[in-house]
Amino acid sequence: MSTIQVDFQLPQRFELEFQGQDGNRQRPVMIHRALFGSIERFFAVLLEHYAGAMPPWLAPVTVVGIPITDEHVPYLREVAAELKKHGIRVDVDASDDRMQKKIRNAQKAKIPFMLIAGNDDVEAGAVSFRYRNGEAEERRAGGRGRRGDRGRGGASHSGLTTVRSGAGSAESAPLRFERWRLRIC
């Protein structure tokens, strides 16, 4: 996809002139083809700047759900559906790969956040959290996690935090969002 552009500035900068039919010196108008438009150039610069690890607000997929076994996929799909209701771009990796390979694939794809669910998480109505740089959110008594490494994106990486459900089941645990914080209440 390319555009044709009329440029009045470059001939002036390079002091380009030609002799017209009337014998007078005239300034030309440059017509050139731009292979990439301004939007495409902008995204190319962003991709280069972030080395593909876009900040969460700009990443095509913000969160990927990774089940420990196939029996945890339905629970993660419920969590993903709730996240999608709130505008979060989320996928669930239900492939036949081992969990470690799913994590590695998500890190290679530079997905900002990973939600991992196992038996303990399903029972508690919670998810385990992991940043794309590999740092995991630790759970403390009362279920509160600590903030992990903020990574390249600064404060935008610190946003998604999980809190265990006091209710004990996913059905009775509504999700609440506060400026990139996910709370399972």
UniProtKB/TrEMBL annotation:
Entries under InterPro entries matching the protein: aa-tRNA-synt_IIb, aa-tRNA-synth_II/BPL/LPL, Anticodon-bd, Anticodon-bd_dom_sf, Thr-tRNA-ligase_IIa, ThrRS_anticodon
Keywords: Aminoacyl-tRNA synthetase, ATP-binding, Cytoplasm, Ligase, Nucleotide-binding, Protein biosynthesis, Zinc
Record keyword ATP-binding present: yes
Domain Aminoacyl-tRNA synthetase class II (G/ P/ S/T): 1-50
Residue spans of biased composition, Basic and acidic residues class: 137-152
Residue ranges, annotated region (Disordered): 137-168
Any Pfam family the entry gives: tRNA-synt_2b
Highest taxon listed in the record's lineage: Bacteria
Domain Anticodon-binding: residue ranges: 63-138
Keyword ATP-binding included in the entry's annotation: yes
Family per similarity comment: Belongs to the class-II aminoacyl-tRNA synthetase family.
Protein name as catalogued: Threonyl-tRNA synthetase
Species: Kitasatospora paracochleata
